[in-house]
Each structure stands twice: as C-alpha cells, then as structure tokens.
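Progress report, Aim 2. The chain analyzed during this reporting quarter is listed below.
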Amino acid sequence: MTAITPLVTDIAALVFGACVGSFLNVCIYRIPEGMSVVWPGSACPSCGHRLSWWENLPILGYLTLLGRCRQCHKRISPQYPIVEAVTALMALALWRHFGPGWELAAYAFFTSCLIVAAFIDLKHRIIPDLVTLPGIAAGLLASCLLTSITCLESLAGIIAGGSVFFLVAWAYELITGREGLGGGDIKLLAMIGAFLGWKAIPLVIMVSAGLGSIIGIAVMLMGRGGKHTAIPFGPFLSGAALLTLLRGNEIMTWYLRILSGE
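Predicted structure tokens for the chain:
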C-alpha cells in the first residue's frame, strides 16, 4: 500500500495540473482580447462551436479530435495540449518539491502566472498588467505565510526586479534609440522578485540571458532573423524563474564550481 501511495499522488498532481492548464489556455486566449475568463464556455475560435465535456478534456480532447474542430474541421492550435502538458508536469514537480502546504499553493499560483505570461508574450509580444500586477501583490502577501522568504525580502525583490530591468531598458534605448525591454518584462521580473526574493534576481537574469542568447543564435543560424530581430523575453524570464524556484541552489553550486575550476 505504501508503494502505491506516491504513484497515486503523482497521478493526481498530473491530472490536477492538466485541468489547471486547460483554464490557463482560456486566460492566454481571452486576456489579450479583453474577454472574461469565466463566461461564456469554451468554444472553437474559428466557428464558435461550443465544446462538449469530452472535447474539453485536457490533452485527451485534443488527441481525440486529431487537432481539428469537430464542427468546422479547422486546425486547433497545438498550444492547447502543450500548455496543459507543461502545467501538469510543473504541478508534479511542485508537489514533489514542496509537498502539501501554503508554499505549494503560493508557488502553484506563481507558476500559473508565469505560464500565462510566457505564452501570451510568445503570441502577442505583450505581458498584460492583469497577470503581473496581481502577481506582485500575491507574492508580497504570500511572503507573510512562506518560510523560504520574508516580507522584507519579497519587497526588496519587487524593487530590485523592477529597477534593474527599468535601468537596463532605459540605458539600451538611450544608447541605441530602440526599445529593448518592454514594461511587461520589467513588471514580470518584479513579480518574480516578489515570490523568490531579491537574492534570486541575479540568478534569474543570468539564466534568462543565457537561454535567450542560445535561442537567439539558433534563430539567426536558421536564417529566420537578424541581430535586431525582436524575440519575446517573457518566456526566458519565466523559464529561468521556474528553474531558480526548483533548482536554484544546484545551479549556483554548479556555476561556482565552474568559476573555481573544480
């Protein structure tokens, strides 16, 4: 019985995460359009066909429909199962890392905000205030309940995250005459600071810059852009924040070993 329990809880975390991912898809689609995320129910974006319960099943619904609307037969974006799968895997990772408690709830909300911000930025090149500003407030409030950071560390994280990117964006635009980082990126890093504290900001910036450089070089090598091609930075910030949340200590240990030549 004891051997079955971890498997059952892992499956429950995956299923719950996939269901949350289904709702995050609604947020990703509707928030940029200024629509309610609660009403009306899910429908095909092409023909308006209202989805039945089985069509709404996370991942399985998409696979059953073979990625096409049952009514108009137009292609459904693979974003939907991707978001659901990513959210399911993150739910499992958070469950294994934190276990039941306030930290799990707080960082599950944080992770959801990061996923929504990343996918909206990928599609629309914006990060809505409706995601980041409530996230900043929630992070500061959650710090009163968390054991990993204090309220002062959270507040310092908000200030550090916002001010660092604000200064970078201001300097870049002053030197080049082009906008480098948008206001959404600044607020997103402030939200990350609210949940992870000021000490995590340097690592998040370093990891996101590394990820962004790798992808940017890959895009240029594939001939799909030049050195001035705009690449949304929100996904890299979100990915770096999640890596820092779950594996920050290991990343820093590995990095310091490289610096010391071990």
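DSSP finds nine helices and no strands in the chain. The chain has two domains: 1-100, 101-262. These observations will guide the mutagenesis work planned for the next reporting period.
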